Amino acid sequence: MFRTISITLAVISALIFTGCGDYTVNANEHKTPIHNQGAMGLNESETGSGDTIYIFMPLIEGGTFTMGCTEEQEDDCWDNENPAHQVTLSSFRIGKYPVTQELWRRVMSGNPSWFNSPRLGRNAEQNPVDNVSWYDAQLFISRLNDTTEMKFRLPTEAEWEFAARGGLMSRGYKYAGSDNINEIAWYLGNTGGKLSNGATRQVGTRAPNELNLYDMSGNVFEWVNDWYGTYTEKSKIDPQGPLEGINRVFRGGSWSVDAKFCRVSERFNGSPDTRLNIIGLRLALDPVEEEVEEAPFKENSASRLRAPNSLPVRILPQ
Q1: Which end of the chain has fewer surrounding CB within 10 Å, N or C?
Q2: Could you write out the DSSP letters of every residue in the chain?
Q3: What's the CATH superfamily of 2-20+65-296?
Q4: Ranges in the chain, pLDDT < 70
Q5: Would you list the domain boundaries of the chain?
């Protein structure tokens, strides 16, 4: 009961005090901070076309990890994080950043985000999209796939946690990339989340985790594909979650919640039609067979894909 009340209050506070492509960063983004780039994050001279969207999808090498309430989570674990159990995953790709408002707008011809540019009074194109349901996320992905002829999807809950923990590079942090949440996350403690100035922040403006993924703790919760269900002790291989259910899972914490809700093992769930200004999404993608056998691609080897509706996308694996 205490857990349900705590989550409800966090959500209500986010709504009361606010009234309630992909990643357009250039190939030199390791040298050019995202917050110093323009609204598109790219100049036409760098892309050859203002229609280009760049999607950074690092290859996450598969492996085995312990999912759930592990030692570094200390006394913050809830019952639904237990029992901790072994999970083995195949390799996959996952977005380096949450889906931005710009990418959503370019694909869907609209922006549902509560924290959009007019409301914030500043450019929010590179803020994560918010106020989207699980169903909205599926529609977005369907249209993106039609546009790109790719097979984007939401990550599974196990893939999300493995990536947040740093995959095979994990150093066992409590949050995604550090034990000091202020280094890696936008959350209640540094956004004024329960005050009138609480809001999302531009993606990639806190430090990344061990896999160079940004915002996996804080900024916005992220829908994953799974129905919500309880854990068991049984080891699993590429788990997809329950076959059916009532609620879908979302992960990662947000700008409006305390640090303990941004932990890598923390689990939330809600009706798939829920829309809140604290929930967004991150893309996943299955690698082709050749990619699993080879080292991850370099940025300059990325291919450019032309789409039927003139929204070309360049997939940048690193």
Answers
A1: N
A2: -HHHHHHHHHHHHHHHTTT---S---TTTTTS-GGGS-SSSS-HHHHSSTT-EEEE--EE--EEEEESS-GGGGGG--GGG-S-EEEEE--EEE-SSPPBHHHHHHHHSS---SS-HHHHTS--TTSBP-S--HHHHHHHHHHHHHHHS--EEPPPHHHHHHHHTTGGG----SSSS-SSHHHH---HHHHTTTSTT-----TT-S---TTS---SSSSSEEEEEEEP----SS-EES----SS-S-EEEES--TTS-GGGGSTT--EEE-TT---TTEEE--EEPPPHHHHHSPPPPGGGPPEE--TTS--EEEE--
A3: paralog of FGE (formylglycine-generating enzyme) (3.90.1580.10)
A4: 1-51, 193-197, 288-318
A5: 2-20+65-296
